[in-house]
């Protein structure tokens, strides 16, 4: 399992688990593209993309940096 963390601009952090790294990437992409939604006290709440500060997750197999690129 991979733990997802969704940080909102008001300081709240929501966490939940997904199956693997691929699902983590998919969820992160959809959240930063479409915004965040969750249930608070039985009420479905939607947060637009500008209220999502960042999305993080711990990858089981981290990406490897092949080399550092010096831009022009």
Describe this structure in words.
The chain is an alpha+beta fold. It has one domain (2-57). It contains 1 helix and 5 strands; from the N terminus they run E-E-H-E-E-E. A hairpin with a 4-residue loop joins strand 1 and strand 2. The longest helix is centred in the middle third of the chain and has 14 residues, at 21-34.
- Give the helices and strands as they follow along the chain: EEHEEE
> So how many helices?
1
In the predicted model, the low-confidence regions spanning at least 5 consecutive residues are none
Number of domains: 1
Strand order of the largest sheet: 2-1-5
Can you count the beta strands?
5
Short description:
By secondary structure, the protein is of the alpha+beta class. 19% of the residues lie in helices and 40% in strands.
Layout of helices and strands, plus pairs?
Layout: E1 2-8, E2 13-18, H1 21-34, E3 36-40, E4 43-47, E5 52-57
Antiparallel strand pairs: 1-2, 1-5, 3-4
Task: List key phrases describing it.
alpha+beta, globular, two-stranded antiparallel ribbon, 72 residues, 3-stranded antiparallel beta sheet
């Amino acid at each position: 399992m991979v733990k997802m963390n969704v940080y909102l601009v008001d300081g709240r952090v929501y966490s939940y688990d997904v199956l693997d790294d691929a699902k983590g990437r998919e969820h992160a992409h959809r959240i930063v593209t479409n915004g965040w939604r969750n249930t608070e006290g039985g009420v479905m709440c939607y947060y637009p993309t500008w209220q999502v500060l960042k999305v993080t997750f711990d990858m089981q197999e981290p990406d490897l940096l092949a080399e550092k690129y010096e831009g022009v």
